Amino acid sequence: MSIRERRRRATMRRRNQLTVPAEIVEALHIREGDEVEFTVDANGDVHLRGLMVVPADQRWYWTDDWQRGEREASEQIEAGEGAVYDHVDAMFDDLDR
Question: Which domains does the chain have, with CATH numbers?
Answer without folding.
Answer: 14-51 (2.10.260.10), 56-96 (no CATH)
